[in-house]
Amino acid sequence: MFFNCKPKVVQGSYLNGKMFLDLTKMYINSINSDSLPDVKTSWKIVVDSQFQGIYDKSVKYYVDSMLSLDFKAINKVEEMIKYHNTFKEKSFEFLSEITNINIPNSFFMDFFKNLENELNKQFSDFINKWNELSTKNCQVK
Q1: What is the pLDDT of residues 14-28, one digit of tens each?
Q2: 45-102: pLDDT as tens digits
Q3: Which of 17, 22, 51, 60 falls between 20 and 30 A from 125, CA-CA?
């Protein structure tokens, strides 16, 4: 029965299960409140939700990975930069989950820049923590 079903496509993008569910909920809520569903607005909300999920997952991966490091064993800033670049690159791999969404390139680039800025801000915080720990270790010795 379901073997011949074609994937749902909205504005040139295939919907995954979560996107389809979110879109359906918005349509039902709109109909239940005696208003007409606005496809463009609903689609934008679904896409924004997908991007927010990827953003949160990417930042969480990066932060968790940096927190797993033994800062006492890291002696050089270059080592911190190496870890930062490795974890940042891996965080960007989560973006592949949204490559099938048909959005303007500028939207994707803005998202990419915002994610990169957040990861760089997190790195700055980790560098400060590492410096504080290194200073304390030097004072103890």
Answers
A1: 667 777 777 788 778
A2: 888 888 899 999 999 999 999 999 988 888 888 999 999 999 999 999 998 877 667 6
A3: 51
**Structure-token match 């940096």, residue found:** 66
Taking the model in full, what pTM does it have?
A: 0.73
CATH superfamily assigned to domain 9-140: Guanylate-binding protein, C-terminal domain (1.20.1000.10)
Structure tokens at 12: 């040139």
How is the chain split into domains, by residue range?
A: 9-140
Q: Residue written as tokens 């239940």?
A: 32
- How large is the angle between the packed helices 39-67 and 17-32, nearest 10 degrees? 140
Q: What angle do CA 113, 115, 118 make, to 5 degrees?
A: 110
